[in-house]
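Last lecture ended with a question: if I hand you only a sequence, what can you say about the shape of the protein? Today we answer it with a concrete record. The protein is XRE family transcriptional regulator. Below, first the input exactly as provided, then the predicted structure, then a couple of comments.
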Amino acid sequence: MPHATQHADAAAGVAAAELDTALRGGPFHVALRAAIAARGLPLQRVQHHLSRHGVRVGVTSLSYWQQGARRPQRPESLRAVRALEEILQLPEESLIRLLADTGPATGSGRPAARSYRSVQEASEVLHRLLGDLGAPLDGGLHTLGHHERVRIGARRELLGRESHHIVRAHRDGVDRFVAVHHGDPGCAPERMAVHALENCRTGRVRLHPATGILVAELLFDTRLRAGDTFLFRYAVEDGTAGVCREYVRGHGPAGGQYALQVRFDARALPVRCHRFVQHSPAAPRGGRQDLPLSRRHHSVHLVEPRVRSGMPGIAWDWE
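The predicted structure:
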């Protein structure tokens, strides 16, 4: 029956396209409905799979969720949503992110992801701060290598980070780099500190408490010519927010090697860690890979041999 096969393939293609669109733009109930339809599972089978994950949700609740009549909000319901991402073979955080975009805090122990609106606001704030410093979006530097060390404290907070950059100028006259630090929700940029560690000194600093953004000039004391390379290190001391559960590095144009190391205080070690990549702040996460925690050095790391546009990161779970 070739015609039947062709119709089935076409229907599957349409379902997959609808699912992809819904996961990117939401809302939650549309994405959930599209995911269930794409997998061809009746709600009774979905409920059965959830029970095997140790989560109890009624068929009526599932029906309300996919109709938009109710939204998952209780901790048990949010556990079900995370289980649904696995059952329906969706990227991790893809459904939870849609809840965070339009709903209240998840109440699941993991803070809601920054919503699309807050990401847009932060982007607008960042452009204003960069404009205040007279810093163009293209700073005249290509990254050849970037090694970043992140420290997590005994209270499970983001204590700070250190960055070691290797750059090459692609135009004459470059004499600075503008560092951006976006703290965790609830942070206080006015209590943070920027330290120039090697081959640079701190210039002007601008911050925006409402979004947790800090922008700082790092001055080279030399003017690079096109083709010149330069190495410098700086650090940002934070420690002003609550529990930290991930670190994400946003990249612009493609560049050189990027290495991220997260080191935990010996008194507060996570139970598991994994890496991921996100193509944009509003996109689903993919590329999940478990990372072993070094018991001697209390750290995990990732290495991107050549950075592509996107946002690599490391996330971890506390007990």
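Comments.
1. Residues 2-25 form the longest helix (24 residues).
2. Residues 196 and 234 are 4 Å apart (CA to CA).
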